[in-house]
């Protein structure tokens, strides 16, 4: 099969880590008989420098014409880069928000997985870690509190601020379906997180999730209040498979879940719409402090490419192969600087390109 992939290298370490992910995809193409075609798309600071805009209409059109988009990261040093002297809607990050909106990317997926070899980086106690954990946070990305009407007005001599939290049945149903679909590809368990003891939007969320669940008899599901979920993530993270939740709860819980894995350079992410299209990117930023040094960890981007194969192209065996190669590289004792243990005597530190090569060797 032939797949057309839009590639946004972006800024900082973006070009370095995306180059390694493309190298891995090409090796997968050779091994499994697929053709991956790449179209480079400018976004972020590099687009500002070239065109004056963080994302042009041509770039949006190129992304829309792709089967999926693989991205590195965008942005620079927010204190020193001239990009941050521009008005907010002309800065690098405005490009990413515009792209998400233009492509209607309403479902954000962030896995939190604890690698046996990186247990030391996990801030939780051994008895809590147990057999480890492997969960997927599915967060609604285009509705709720962050997109509702807001105002700050003077009333009776003092300022009053309001933010509104709105969800429609359609918005809830489409993300719930996505969550259950993803669970079908995993351990078939969904924990839907809400605050239904207080919020109307959560009560509607719960009702629609139950309706959707009826179409997935193989998937076990439960409801959990968000405050309890925040506790359970640090008490017993192994209980979760897919956590399905609305925008603000997902924002907070996904950071908590990624923190317990202990290593930002390992965490992939995907943003999906209601087609097979997705935008795949590492959870970290452009790391301007280490850009150009050849030491960035490319694994999060390589795992994002694996997510692209799994969720946009339905190439599960190919995605499994990448994930297994990453695990093997860690088992064989190779680490980039960000995941080096305190006592590094038993492992070998490698750079960005070498890490990419080692993963390709193990495919
Ligand atoms: P950051 O994630 O870029 O860096 C935080 C720390 O983690 C740094 O010390 C960095 O060196 C390290 N780090 C991050 N990724 C790494 C990797 N792959 N390998 C090794 N170390 C890694 O966050 P920041 O410093 O707050 O932001 C820098 C820039 O990135 C800002 O302009 C910010 O707006 C942007 N940003 C972009 C995205 C995105 O493109 N989606 C996301 C977050 C931040």
Report the biggest beta sheet as strand number plus sense, adding barrel if it closes.
10 strands, mixed
Q: Report the mean per-residue pLDDT as an integer.
A: 95
Structural class: alpha/beta
Query: What is the element string, with H for helices and E for strands?
Result: EHEHHEHEHEEEHEHEHEHEEHHEEH
The third-level CATH topology of the largest domain is Isopropylmalate Dehydrogenase
Annotated CATH homologous superfamily of the largest domain: Isopropylmalate Dehydrogenase
Helix content: 25-40%
Give short descriptive properties of this protein.
two-stranded antiparallel ribbon, Isopropylmalate Dehydrogenase, binds nicotinamide-adenine-dinucleotide, 39% helix, single chain, 2 domains, globular, 363 residues, alpha/beta, ten-stranded mixed β-sheet, 14 strands
Short characterization:
The strands form three sheets. Strands 2-1-3-12-11-4-5-10-8-9 form a ten-stranded mixed sheet, with helices on both faces. A two-stranded antiparallel ribbon has the order 6-7. The protein has a two-stranded parallel sheet with strand order 13-14. The chain is an alpha/beta fold and 363 residues long.
Tell me what the structure shows:
- It is a single chain.
- The chain has 363 residues and is α/β, with parallel strands linked by helices.
- It folds into 2 domains: 1-112 and 261-363, Isopropylmalate Dehydrogenase (3-Layer(aba) Sandwich); 123-260, Isopropylmalate Dehydrogenase.
- The chain is built from 12 helices and 14 strands.
- The strands form 3 sheets. Strands 2-1-3-12-11-4-5-10-8-9 form a 10-stranded mixed β-sheet, with helices on both faces. A two-stranded antiparallel ribbon has the order 6-7. The protein has a two-stranded parallel sheet with strand order 13-14.
- A hairpin with a 2-residue loop joins strand 6 and strand 7 (158-163).
- Helix 1 packs across helix 10 (299-311).
- The longest helix has 19 residues, at 14-32.
- The mean pLDDT is 95.
- Nicotinamide-adenine-dinucleotide binds at residues 13, 17, 73-76, 78, 93, 96, 264-265, 281, 284-290, 296-297, 300, 338.
């Amino acid at each position: 099969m032939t797949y057309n992939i839009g590639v946004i290298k972006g800024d900082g370490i973006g070009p370095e880590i995306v180059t390694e992910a493309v190298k891995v995809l090409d090796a997968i193409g050779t091994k499994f008989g697929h053709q991956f075609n790449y179209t480079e798309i400018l976004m972020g600071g590099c687009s500002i420098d070239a065109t004056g805009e963080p994302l042009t209409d041509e770039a949006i059109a190129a992304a829309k014409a792709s089967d999926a988009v693989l991205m590195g990261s965008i942005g620079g040093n927010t204190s020193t880069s001239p990009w941050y002297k521009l008005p907010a809607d002309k800065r690098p990050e405005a490009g990413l928000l515009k792209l998400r909106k233009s492509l209607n990317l309403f479902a954000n997926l962030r896995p939190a997985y604890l690698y046996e070899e990186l247990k030391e980086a996990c801030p939780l106690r051994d008895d809590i870690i147990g057999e480890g954990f492997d969960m997927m946070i599915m967060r609604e990305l285009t509705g709720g509190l962050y997109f509702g009407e807001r105002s700050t007005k003077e009333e009776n001599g003092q300022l009053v601020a309001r933010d509104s939290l709105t969800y429609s049945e359609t918005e809830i149903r489409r993300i719930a379906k996505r969550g259950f679909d993803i669970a079908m590809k995993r351990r078939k368990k969904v924990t839907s997180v809400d605050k239904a003891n207080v919020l109307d939007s959560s009560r509607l969320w719960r009702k629609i999730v139950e309706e959707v669940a009826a179409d997935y008899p193989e998937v076990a599901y439960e409801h959990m209040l968000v405050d309890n979920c925040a506790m359970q993530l640090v008490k017993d993270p192994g209980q979760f498979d897919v956590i399905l939740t609305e925008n603000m709860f997902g924002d907070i819980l996904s950071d908590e879940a990624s923190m317990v894995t202990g290593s930002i350079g390992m965490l992939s992410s995907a943003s999906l719409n209601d087609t097979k299209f997705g935008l795949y990117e590492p959870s970290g930023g452009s790391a301007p402090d280490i850009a150009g040094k050849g030491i960035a960890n490319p694994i999060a981007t390589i795992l994002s490419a694996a997510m692209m194969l799994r969720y946009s192209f339905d190439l599960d065996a190919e995605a499994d192969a990448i994930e297994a190669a990453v695990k093997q590289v860690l088992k064989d004792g190779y680490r980039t600087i960000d995941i080096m243990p305190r006592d590094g005597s038993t492992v070998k530190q490698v750079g960005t390109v070498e890490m990419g090569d080692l993963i390709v060797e193990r495919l």
